[in-house]
Q: What sequence folds into this?
């Protein structure tokens, strides 16, 4: 009777443990793989711009197209005017190039690029302070964008902000998306990342330095 | 369902496992991160786009001041207007209206497409039409006038600017065959009449305020929009010697405590309308104490001493007249300014040379009669302050190339022989040039209104109403839906000055020639066009000599052609600025016109820097400023006698005459108040300026008039009470605000309110004060006189 | 921040306003509201609801005609240096005092709209967004990209145009400098004042004009008795004007 009781309660515990473990495994899979995969929508850029082609083969640098204005403000994503300097006519045989020149250059339409890195309207980020004064390389925050060719733009379904995998050797899956930033993934900076760096460098952390 | 203990425990295990698993995964933390980002985005709040920063210069055309402005651009958006530090007129200072001009450019009251009225004027509906249709329609109306042999019935009312586009309008009228080109009267127009009478010149008056030490201002609101506002602000900024400028005393003679009075070194309250008596009493002290410039008066004036005319008849001179009638003691009774104050001021005026006596109330345009301004101007002559630093000069001509002569066909010649419909230059008003407030609407068939709003701003309200009731066809060339456009038959959307090619000659009161050229800083918004270009097209549509009178393809061609005159003159400078794209620093050097190798170099520099000036060229020789037959300053104006045939000598000399008594029951005096924040010339006021109004000026839609607490007490009224303010011309409903700075018996009513057109930020706020001012016509100049009106005030 | 000589120095940016010169024209306020995207509504006469970072107060000496005189007090945020009232009450850290520049800032997206700061501010410089800001369609074009428009439910106030401080730093960095010259960082109101009544600079830097001006016997501050040490100083030669600034209790 006692044995039976014990085995009965053991069975009960085993059952409960099994339910617990199964729930744990399922939720871990959901938490690590399913939700992260669902959290992002893949979107295509209007034109599949090819950074390695520009940087590695043609040999232009970031600041050829992403430059500072005279007053130290940042031009950001180049406008059509900058592109037209080279792309007034179709160069090469790529169908994307043909689409770019015919659909945008010839029609004088700005490309509505999806931005991999952008901050909300309440944030003002000074490239001049970071690049010119603190001498931080573009890659530190943007990763090797110039050497990677992200086919897709990943838009977070809640925020509409992107995270993008730059290392083409890493398969694009849930694990890569949630990997710590700076290894294989770069994207919009969070405020704690900004302040951590500012603190470690002894720079001002006054709110208005970043918030406008 | 029955949940027993076992099921519950199983459920807990499931939930616990699930929760632990989720907590061990990055999902919750990333969710929090994403939600944090989400909270930072407010998609319905506008996010102004960043872009390429740049600065471009232009000329402010809100008023005729011609101040230089510096416009900040972000890509093709204009986001800020600042004063141009290198511009000779304002040297960086601008008024709030100029600073808010972008709200006009982008504002909701812009006219967008040509509109044709359908339905009656009282209750109009508007149908959009194409530019081609609009131009054909105007041409048709003009052609019909000419076909009926009535080309002189074409009339135009335009703004007071000296611009090429205004010359285009005049040209168009001449080519069609009409003299009826009318400009709204500029603020210093009455002063030109004074100069014509006393100095025999046709030019406008100029004051060398920058070099003066003492300003005796008879009610001029020097700091509230008098002359070029930016220039006056700059002069005020440098008033005290320790700021590096010339020490400048301002003595303000005015019944009420205006901003200028409160900033003046001294405020002399005076009984309203008695300025002439005070000026002549100051002259009395100057003469009796021997404080005037005897050499100048002896050599260069006429009518000072008693004189004999050609018949040998003895005539009384200015000296006898002034000494006889205007002793400080007797004038104290007229002006209620103590005799010792009059003496003190006269002594100060003499001791602080160069000193200037300035007349013209509010923005300069309000005066009690031409004799008042003559009395004030005679103080400048007594001080000998003509054509010398810190004194009176004339506005100089800008050496622009004149446009080729107008071609007129037979029909045009016939129409042109018929006199003007506003009476300017006629027997009644021989000295006047433009009298839009005297227009005989019955004699006009087609009226072109260009950038003015006579329906709101014409001081003679009867004429303003008649224009829109009697004239069969009215075209409004306007950038905004103003009151006049709302009553027109056709609205043509005109680009604002920041979107168009335009020019502006001379700034009011500046002693040397200045030419402002503005170019489009942005592409014209909507379908708006340059008025000059529209006129060229109408002329082409009409063909014949009218088209031949407009040989240019567009306005720029004409501007370029005229600017060649500046280059060929070889005089003057352009302040060429090298912009660094920052807020502050901007360095400019005056480049002499001579140093430009070709005209197109000169033209490019002019376009970029917007301003040519020639500070060396002033009328600093007396023969330039004294052009009466005897080459003398005339205290006794022989021209006045000759033109009007006055038999009474007094009518040819500055004098004070008592105003007629107030009509029965009207025991108060209503005076207009000029607010720097409100446009009172019919132009709209941007919302950011209305924000500046204190709520004892405007509360909801109620306008406040100011009265002295004692006046309010006598009338049995309390601060803030709703009242009816009535004059013989009409009545308005307002509220009262008591303020000790207003003279007893005076009611101050602010101008610029009571619009019925424009946008919802301006419309239906307060009342248009002009409705109760019954403008009279000055007998000599023909200009509108409406500095005050008798009134009464009572509870609603 | 560093000065020209390179030594680390803490700045205290401050302003002087010469009320004897000020004509109350309102250019400072117009320019401020243009620069900082301050919205407007149809009825601006409701001063308890309307938005203004810079208000101009007309004050008289209380005497009768003709002895009455008027002065105008332009009133930006006083940027209190000591026990900054708004900062000490903000439960959300939405407003903060920066020790390196002395600027009291306001972070709109962090504000929870409790309006505790509005109650605490003795100068009434703060205003609350009762509605989302709405500009007529094309008027959005003149908005300044350097300042984010606010949303309903948050408090806003003058920031001494702190974005202009950043712009000035950007430019200095672009030129390889780490210090700012006196005229490089100036709020919009000071830059625009047409009569030169307003000055701006580092109160800690004896070379700056403001540091000298605040030593003058003409200088005074509003409600000095509260000991909030405002960094906006007023200047006047008239005793009655200086007395207006405080209740001298």
A:
């Amino acid at each position: 009777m006692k044995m039976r009781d014990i085995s009965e309660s053991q069975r009960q515990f085993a059952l409960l443990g099994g339910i617990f473990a199964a729930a744990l495994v399922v939720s871990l899979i959901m938490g690590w793989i399913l939700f992260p995969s669902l959290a992002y929508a893949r979107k295509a850029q209007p034109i599949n711009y090819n950074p390695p082609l520009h940087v590695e083969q043609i040999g232009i640098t970031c600041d050829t197209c992403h430059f500072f204005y005279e007053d130290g403000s940042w031009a950001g994503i180049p406008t059509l005017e900058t592109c037209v300097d080279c792309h007034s006519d179709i160069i090469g045989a790529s169908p994307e190039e043909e689409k770019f020149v015919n659909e945008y250059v010839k029609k004088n339409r700005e490309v509505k690029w999806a931005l991999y890195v952008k901050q909300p309207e309440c944030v003002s980020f000074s490239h001049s302070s970071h690049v010119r004064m603190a001498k931080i390389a573009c890659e530190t925050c943007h990763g090797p964008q110039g050497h990677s060719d992200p086919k897709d733009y990943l838009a977070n379904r809640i925020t509409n902000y992107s995270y993008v995998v730059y290392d083409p050797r890493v398969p694009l899956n849930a694990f890569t998306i949630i990997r710590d930033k700076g290894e294989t993934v770069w994207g919009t900076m969070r405020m704690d990342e900004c302040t951590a760096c500012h603190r470690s460098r002894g720079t001002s952390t006054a709110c208005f330095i970043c918030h406008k | 369902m029955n949940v027993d203990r076992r099921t519950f425990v199983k459920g807990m295990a499931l939930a616990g496992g699930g929760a632990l698993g989720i907590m061990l995964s990055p999902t919750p933390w990333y969710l929090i991160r994403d939600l944090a980002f989400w909270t930072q985005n407010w998609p319905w709040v506008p996010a102004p786009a960043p872009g390429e920063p740049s600065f471009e210069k232009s000329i402010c055309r809100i008023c005729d001041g011609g101040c230089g402005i510096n416009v900040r651009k972000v890509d093709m958006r204009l986001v800020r207007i600042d004063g141009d530090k290198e511009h000779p007129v304002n040297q960086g200072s601008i008024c709030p209206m100029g600073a808010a001009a972008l709200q006009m450019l982008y504002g909701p009251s812009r006219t967008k497409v040509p509109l044709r009225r359908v339905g009656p004027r009282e209750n109009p509906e508007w149908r959009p039409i194409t530019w081609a249709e609009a131009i054909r329609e105007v041409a048709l109306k003009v052609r019909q006038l000419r076909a009926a042999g009535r080309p002189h019935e074409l009339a135009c009312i335009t703004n007071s600017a000296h611009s090429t586009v205004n010359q285009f309008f005049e040209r168009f009228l001449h080519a069609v065959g009409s003299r009826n080109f009318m400009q709204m009267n500029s603020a210093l127009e009455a002063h030109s009449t004074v100069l014509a009478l006393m100095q025999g010149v046709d030019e406008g008056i100029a004051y060398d305020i920058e070099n003066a030490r003492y300003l005796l201002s008879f009610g001029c609101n020097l700091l509230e929009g008098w002359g070029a506002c930016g220039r006056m602000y700059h002069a005020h900024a440098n008033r005290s010697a320790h700021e590096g400028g010339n020490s400048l005393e301002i003595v303000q003679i005015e019944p009420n405590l205006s901003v200028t009075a409160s900033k003046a070194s001294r405020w002399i309250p005076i009984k309203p309308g008695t300025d002439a008596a005070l000026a002549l009493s100051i002259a009395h002290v100057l003469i009796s104490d021997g404080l005037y410039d005897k050499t100048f008066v002896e050599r260069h004036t006429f009518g000072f001493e008693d004189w004999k005319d050609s018949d040998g008849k003895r005539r009384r001179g200015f000296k006898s007249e002034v000494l006889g009638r205007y002793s400080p003691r007797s004038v104290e009774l007229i002006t209620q300014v103590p005799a010792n104050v009059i003496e003190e001021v006269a002594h100060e005026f003499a001791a602080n040379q160069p000193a200037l006596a300035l007349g013209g109330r509010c923005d300069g345009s309000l005066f009690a009669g031409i004799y008042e301004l003559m009395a004030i101007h005679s103080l400048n002559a007594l001080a000998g302050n003509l054509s010398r630093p810190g004194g009176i000069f004339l506005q100089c001509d800008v050496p622009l190339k004149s446009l080729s002569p107008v071609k007129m066909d037979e029909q045009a010649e016939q129409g042109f022989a018929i006199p003007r419909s506003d009476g300017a230059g006629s027997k009644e008003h021989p000295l006047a040039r433009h009298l839009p407030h005297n227009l005989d609407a019955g004699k006009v068939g087609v009226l072109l209104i260009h950038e003015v709003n006579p329906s709101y701003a014409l001081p003679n309200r009867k004429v303003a109403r008649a224009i829109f009731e009697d004239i069969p066809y009215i075209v409004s060339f306007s950038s905004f839906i103003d009151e006049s456009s709302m009553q027109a038959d056709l609205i043509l959307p005109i680009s604002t000055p920041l979107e168009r090619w335009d020019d502006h000659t001379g700034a009011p009161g500046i002693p040397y020639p200045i030419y402002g050229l503005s170019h489009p800083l942005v592409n014209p918004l909507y379908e708006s066009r340059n008025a000059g270009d529209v006129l060229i097209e109408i002329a082409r549509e009409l063909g014949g000599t009218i088209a031949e009178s407009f040989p240019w393809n567009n306005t720029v061609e004409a501007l370029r052609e005229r600017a060649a005159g500046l280059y060929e003159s070889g005089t003057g400078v352009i302040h060429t600025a090298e912009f660094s794209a920052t807020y502050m620093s901007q360095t400019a050097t005056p480049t002499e016109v001579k140093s430009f190798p070709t005209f197109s170099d000169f033209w490019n520099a002019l376009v970029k820097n917007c301003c040519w000036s020639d500070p060396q060229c002033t009328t600093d020789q007396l023969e330039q400023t004294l052009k009466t037959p005897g080459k003398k300053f005339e205290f006794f104006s022989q021209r006045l006698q000759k033109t009007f045939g006055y038999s009474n000598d007094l009518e040819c000399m500055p004098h004070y005459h008592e105003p007629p008594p107030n009509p029965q029951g009207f025991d108060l005096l209503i005076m207009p108040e000029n607010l720097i924040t409100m446009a009172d010339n019919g132009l709209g006021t941007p919302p950011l300026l209305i924000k500046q109004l204190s709520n004892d000026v405007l509360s909801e839609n109620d306008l406040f008039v100011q009265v002295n607490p004692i006046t309010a007490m006598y009338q049995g009224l309390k601060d803030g009470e709703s009242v009816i303010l009535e004059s013989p011309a009409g009545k308005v409903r307002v509220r009262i605000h008591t303020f000790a700075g207003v003279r007893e018996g005076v009611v101050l009513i602010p101008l610029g309110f009571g619009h019925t057109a424009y946008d919802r930020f301006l419309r239906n706020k307060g009342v248009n004060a002009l409705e109760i001012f019954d403008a009279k016509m000055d007998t000599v100049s023909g200009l509108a006189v409406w500095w005050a009106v008798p009134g009464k005030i009572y509870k609603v | 921040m560093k000065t020209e000589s390179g030594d680390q120095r803490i700045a205290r940016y401050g302003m002087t306003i010469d009320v004897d010169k000020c004509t109350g024209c309102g250019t400072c306020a117009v320019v401020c509201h243009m620069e900082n995207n301050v919205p407007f509504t149809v009825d601006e006469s409701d001063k308890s609801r309307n938005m203004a970072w810079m208000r101009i107060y007309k004050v008289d000496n209380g005497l009768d005609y003709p002895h009455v005189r008027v002065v105008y007090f332009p009133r930006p945020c006083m940027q209190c240096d000591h026990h900054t009232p708004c900062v000490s009450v903000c439960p959300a850290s939405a407003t903060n005092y920066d020790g390196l520049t002395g600027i009291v800032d306001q972070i709109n997206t962090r504000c929870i709209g409790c309006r505790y700061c509005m109650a605490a501010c003795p100068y009434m410089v703060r205003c609350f967004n009762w509605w989302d800001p709405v500009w007529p369609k094309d008027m959005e074009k003149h908005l300044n990209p350097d300042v984010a428009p606010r949303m309903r439910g948050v408090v806003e106030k003058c920031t001494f145009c702190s974005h202009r401080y950043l712009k000035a730093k950007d430019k200095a960095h672009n030129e390889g400098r780490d210090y700012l010259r006196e005229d490089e960082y100036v709020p919009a109101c000071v830059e625009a004042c047409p009569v030169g009544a307003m000055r701006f600079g580092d109160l800690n830097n004896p070379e700056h004009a403001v540091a000298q001006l605040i030593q003058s016997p003409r200088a005074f501050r509003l409600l000095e008795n509260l000991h909030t040490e405002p960094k906006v100083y007023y200047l006047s030669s008239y005793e009655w004007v200086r007395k207006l600034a405080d209740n001298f209790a």
Residues 456 and 722 of chain B are 24 Å apart (CA to CA). The longest strand of chain B covers residues 730-738. Residues 5-23 of chain B form the longest helix (19 residues). The mean pLDDT of chain B is 91.
